[in-house]
Amino acid sequence: MRKRTKEVRKIEMLLGTSTREVELVTIEIGDVNRKFVMPVEVTKVDKGELLFLDNPNYEETIAKNPHLSGLVMNDRDKKSHLPVHLILGAGEYAKLKTESAPKIGEPGEPVAC
Q1: What is the pLDDT of residues 76-87, one digit of tens each?
Q2: Which long-range CB contacts under 8 A does 99-104 form with residues at least 24 apart?
Q3: How far apart are alpha carbons 68 and 105 in whole angstroms?
Q4: Cα 49 to Cα 19: distance, rounded to the nearest angstrom
Q5: Residues 25, 31, 110, 75: is their CA dihedral positive or negative?
């Protein structure tokens, strides 16, 4: 399902605000097992790489944090920086469901669902 529209929106950035026409696209996101699907309206950004994060090295992170034991990560990418393809807003994040309780450690430690 892809629904495309264009709207004029006010965009706030670190160095100021601009008003421009943006393309909005409705897409479906889901889990790797295809058991969960959710429609999300996204704003198309014409940049090759919008944002990247240092690779969290999941295997090392899980090993260093006992509260994450049993967690299985499908991403085995070894690049030092990983691109962020989608940023969810608080409303979309709140709609995500998991079959188990989140794995929460001490303040400042990683959390997993």
Answers
A1: 888 999 888 888
A2: 103/67, 103/68, 103/71, 104/67
A3: 8
A4: 22
A5: negative
Q: Which helix (H) or strand (E) holds 83?
A: strand 81-83
DSSP, residue by residue, 5-72: EEEEEEEEETTEEEEEEEEEEEEEEE-TTSS-EEEEEEE----S-S-EEE---HHHHHHH-GGGTT--
Distances in Å between the alpha carbon of 75 and those of 4, 32, 52, 55? 30, 11, 15, 10
Three-state secondary structure call for residue 90: helix
Q: Which of 46, 41, 53 is nearest to 21 (CA)?
A: 46
* Six-digit token string for 43: 């704003």
CA–CA gap between residue 8 and residue 27 (Å, rounded)? 20
Sheet order of strands, 37-43 included: 3-13, 16-30, 37-43
pTM, two decimal places = 0.58
pLDDT-flagged residues of the chain (< 50):
none
